[in-house]
Design a protein that fits this description.
The chain has about 450 residues and is α+β, with helices and mostly antiparallel strands. It folds into 2 domains: about 130 residues, Serine Threonine Protein Phosphatase 5, Tetratricopeptide repeat (Alpha Horseshoe); about 325 residues, Neuraminidase (6 Propeller), CATH 2.120.10.80. It is built from 10 helices and 29 strands. Strands 1, 2, 5, 6 and 29 form a 5-stranded antiparallel sheet that branches. β7 and β8 form a beta hairpin. The longest helix is centred in the N-terminal third of the chain and has 14 residues. The chain is elongated and about 75 Å long. The two termini are about 25 Å apart. The relative contact order is 0.10. Pfam families: BACK, Beta-prop_ATRN-LZTR1. Keywords: Kelch repeat, Repeat. It comes from Nothobranchius rachovii.
Length: about 450
């Protein structure tokens, strides 16, 4: 930060400050943290982009900074401590606050009384107390369907929603502040696919309703900064329950379902020519699989084949030469989520096939190491997420919505996996459609986020 300021490098300064705000807990543990000027520390503590999982992290950072030079910094204690949202702490966390030797200084006796009063605020005062964090990129939900409260009917959506901020509430409670972004043109859709390229959203295929003839091959592109939808060339085949990836400036639509048949065809879209063309077929028909790009290669996991069994396969698909099969997942799954995070490829949720051939929820999760060609289990889900949306937002895996195969109820929850803590967190609820929706990250204009 100091280097960027000294040499007047605004882009480097922005990147450095973004890193500090997103990794505040780690930064606050470094020896250089206590060298921050007071104005800079206050700027970070008051920022809407400060990302912390607990108010105790903020408080401990403040104490660390003050005690490093207490003889000259105690006079700033009141201003710094006021940046901590004490009512959001658990009783266990507040006990740690009470135990700090900082309060032994007699000049802070009145400040501790204010802190205690703040922590003991009445419930009515707490309703609007939260720490809001606004990521630079927004989590966006596209389309999907949902079941009515009495389970009597389903409806398909054309809505787009975005998560404007993530909110820490009292204790461990967290939620997403959702706002409506708009609607897709023409048909509502579910079991579709999306991709983001050059900061624009592409929406492909899916189904507009529940009949065999309700498949779609239409394609639209959305520019969020112009609030403009554009109709593009249609895919050559209608497909749902497929997967789409961006590779080398082109978009690949892989496999899918054209009822009643599972598909092995792959189409490639060139944005320059606005043309779809077929590439090499898959080795087997697939639907309900997931494809992701890792280090310029397309990895494809799971799915269902023509006998509707869930598969445990993982392979690399190359448009020019075909498929290379890798180590199988330990659990078969389809209609699951898969995302690249660091050096691993994480899979979670979906369906699985039981010994009697019936389908059930898959709660087990595992991560694939391309370097070792091996799978390792990680924390299982507590609720089913079949047909959920997923994204990686700032180093964490989000699962959004879905349904339960066993009782056909919608899963209206958002779960987030933190690799550092190795556990799933409940991050609130989806805003509308829950099932067979799609998710992505987009940079949105500032006026939508004000």
């Amino acid at each position: 930060v100091s280097f960027a300021e000294a040499f007047e490098m605004p882009h480097l300064l922005e990147a450095a400050e973004d890193y500090i705000l997103q990794h505040f807990q780690e930064v606050a543990r470094t020896s250089k943290f206590t060298d921050l000027p007071a104005r800079q520390l206050l700027k970070y503590l008051n920022s809407k982009s400060l990302c912390v999982s607990s108010e105790l992290i903020v408080f401990n950072a403040v104490v660390s900074w003050i005690t490093a030079k207490s003889n000259i910094r105690l006079k700033l204690a009141r201003e710094l401590v006021r940046t901590v949202h004490f009512p959001l702490m658990t009783f266990k966390e507040f006990k740690e606050v009470q135990s700090q030797t900082l309060w032994c200084d007699h000049s802070l006796a009145g400040l501790f009384g204010e802190v205690l009063e703040d922590f003991c605020s009445s419930e009515s005062a707490l309703q609007h107390r939260c720490r809001s964090y606004s990521p630079k990129e927004c989590l966006v939900l596209i389309g999907g369907d949902q079941i009515s409260e009495d389970l009597s009917s389903r409806s398909v959506s054309r809505e787009l929603w975005f998560g404007n901020s993530l909110r820490n509430l009292t204790g461990i409670k967290k939620t997403v502040e959702w706002r409506k972004l708009g609607e897709m043109p023409e048909s509502e859709r579910f079991s579709h696919e999306v991709a983001v390229m050059n900061k624009q959203l592409y929406v492909f295929g899916g189904k507009k309703y529940y009949g065999i003839g309700d498949g779609l091959n239409s394609v639209f592109r959305f520019d969020p900064h112009q609030n403009h939808w554009e109709s593009l060339s249609k895919m050559q085949e209608k497909r749902s329950l497929f997967s789409a990836v961006v590779l080398d400036g082109k978009i690949y639509a892989i496999g899918g379902l054209r009822e009643p048949d599972h598909m092995d065809s792959v189409e490639c879209y060139c944005p320059t020519t606005n043309v779809w063309s077929f590439t090499r077929r898959l080795d087997l028909p697939l639907s309900g699989h997931v494809a992701k790009v890792f280090k310029e290669q397309i990895f494809v996991s799971g799915g269902q084949n023509n006998d509707c069994s869930c598969l445990s396969s993982m392979f690399v698909y190359r448009p020019e030469t075909g498929s290379t099969f890798l180590a199988n997942m330990s659990k078969p799954r389809a209609r699951h989520c898969m995302e690249v995070l660091g050096e691993g490829i994480y899979v979670a949720g979906g369906l699985t096939t039981k010994d009697d051939g019936s389908l059930s929820n898959q709660l087990a999760c595992e991560v694939y190491s391309p370097a070792a060609n091996s799978w390792t289990a990680f924390a299982s889900l507590s609720v089913p997420h079949v047909g959920a949306g997923s994204v990686i937002l700032e180093g964490r895996l989000y699962l959004l919505g879905g349904y339960s195969q066993e009782d056909h109820s919608d899963t209206k929850m958002v779960h987030r996996f933190d690799t550092a803590m190795q556990k799933w967190e409940n991050i609130g609820r989806t805003p509308g459609p829950n099932n067979d929706l799609r998710a992505c990250l987009l940079t949105l204009p500032q006026h939508l986020r004000a």
